Amino acid sequence: MTKTDDQLNNEIGQLLFKSSPNGAKKVIAQLEFTPELDCIYIFDYYNQNNELNWYTLDTDITSPLIDTVRELRQYYIDNGLPAWRGCIITVDIENTKIDFEFKYERFIPLFDDDDLKD
Fold it and tell me: How far apart are CA 13 and CA 68, in angstroms?
């Protein structure tokens, strides 16, 4: 059975909620796919003092999260929408809201563009 985009969004939100650090008010996941569909990711959260921190996810959460985001991307492609390169997912834990911002260009800086030059 093919999942709808709402089902995939809910699944992603549940995974991020379940993996959130204690005391997190909001979690932010940035996932970017390479042309080979490998995934680069960063996970941040805001604590009760509104301080931004990063955190890591256990592989039992990271792998299903990446797979579900890939599935969401494929859903968009299969339904005639543009293939996005990655997304920023914000889960507002206090207000139980999720927001997706789709990116079509590279957006996670891992190195300077000068590093790409010979």
Answer: 10
- DSSP labels for 28-68? EEEEEE-TT--EEEEEEEE-TT--EEE----HHHHHHHHHH
Task: Write out pLDDT tens, residues 44-61.
Answer: 999 999 999 999 998 899
The answer to whether the CB of 27 falls within 8 A of the CB of 20 is: yes
C-alpha 57: how far from chain center = 12
Q: Are 84 and 31 in contact (CB under 8 A)?
A: no
* 68-116 pLDDT tens trace: 999 999 999 999 999 999 999 999 999 999 999 999 999 998 655 454 4
Which CATH architecture does the domain made up of 5-116 adopt?
A: 2-Layer Sandwich (3.30)
Q: What is the pLDDT of residue 2?
A: 80
Name, in order, each residue with C-beta under 8 angstroms of 17's C-beta and a sequence gap of 6 or more: 27, 91, 93
Q: Which residues pair with 101 in a beta bridge?
A: 88
